[in-house]
């Protein structure tokens, strides 16, 4: 008789998720996680460019979770994957997650998006005011939803504050995740040179 029959599988390490609105600093945080010593889940299909010089750290399968493509998550325990906030609800409930949710001033997000579209010779069909309203509405829904999820722990990280001083945030992230991280390497990643879309006063 198989001695493992009826035995519950060992609990998997939480999957570490970097999330937030598009252009909120999620790629920067993924780079920090990698430099800190964690394994990141990415297919590297989207290469670095002038909008994200350090790379995008994306995984195409994340966009397919709503269609049931979630088997890959079985091997993601203890690893880091980027999931934009609009897709968080598709994460399977059978796994546990530690989510680092990036926050950035909305005006800067919009400016960053416009710059990226310009680089691609594209234009948005929706004006900034409407996009800003949509983003704010989305955040007002997703944050309470996250509180209600028993399998999810969330740490909110300000992109703007991290650019100013990354060291204390790197330490707090290590404490939140409860795993060994090279915080000195992590703190070197945020760069004022890449902080090109500050909110314009007035």
Strand and helix layout:
Blueprint: E1 15-20, H1 26-36, E2 80-82, E3 97-103, H2 106-119, H3 128-147, E4 152-158, H4 159-164, H5 166-177, H6 183-187
If you had to describe this structure to a student in words, what would you say it looks like?
The structure is a single chain. The chain is of the alpha/beta class and 202 residues long. The chain has a single domain, classed as P-loop containing nucleotide triphosphate hydrolases (Rossmann fold, 3-Layer(aba) Sandwich). It has helices at residues 26-36, 106-119, 128-147, 159-164, 166-177, 183-187, and strands spanning 15-20, 80-82, 97-103, 152-158. Helix 1 links the parallel strand 1 (15-20) and strand 2. The radius of gyration is 18 Å and the shape is globular.
Q: If helices are DSSP runs of H or I spanning 4 or more residues, what is the number of helices?
A: 6
Distance between the termini: 75 Å
| Total beta strand runs | 4
Decide which structural class fits the backbone.
alpha/beta
* CATH class label: Alpha Beta
Task: Round the mean pLDDT to the nearest integer and report it.
Answer: 84
Strand content: 5-15%
> What Rg do the Cα atoms give?
18 Å
Which superfamily, in CATH terms, is the homologous superfamily?
A: P-loop containing nucleotide triphosphate hydrolases
What is the approximate shape? globular
CATH topology: Rossmann fold
CATH 2nd-level architecture:
3-Layer(aba) Sandwich
Low-confidence stretches: 1-11, 197-202
For the sheet with most strands, the description reads: 4 strands, parallel
In sequence order, what are the helices and strands, one letter per element?
Answer: EHEEHHEHHH
Helix content: 25-40%
* Strand adjacency order, main sheet: 2-1-3-4
């Amino acid at each position: 008789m198989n001695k493992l029959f009826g035995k519950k599988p060992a609990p998997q390490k939480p999957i570490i998720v970097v999330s937030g609105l598009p252009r909120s600093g999620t790629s920067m945080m993924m780079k920090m996680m990698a430099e800190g010593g964690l394994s990141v889940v990415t297919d590297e299909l989207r290469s670095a460019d002038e909008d994200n010089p350090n790379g995008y750290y994306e995984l195409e399968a994340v966009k397919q979770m709503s269609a049931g493509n979630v088997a890959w998550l079985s091997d993601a325990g203890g690893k880091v994957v980027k999931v934009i906030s609009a897709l968080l609800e598709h994460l399977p409930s059978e796994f546990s997650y530690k989510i680092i949710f990036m926050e950035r001033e909305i005006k800067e997000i919009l400016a960053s998006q416009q710059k990226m579209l310009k680089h691609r010779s594209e234009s948005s069909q929706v004006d900034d005011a409407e996009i800003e309203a949509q983003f704010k509405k989305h955040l007002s829904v997703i944050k309470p939803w996250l509180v209600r999820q028993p399998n999810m722990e969330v740490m909110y990280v300000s992109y703007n504050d991290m650019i100013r001083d990354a060291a204390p945030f790197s330490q707090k992230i290590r404490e939140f995740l409860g795993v060994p991280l090279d915080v000195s390497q992590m703190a070197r990643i945020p760069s004022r040179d890449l902080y090109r879309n500050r909110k314009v006063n007035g």
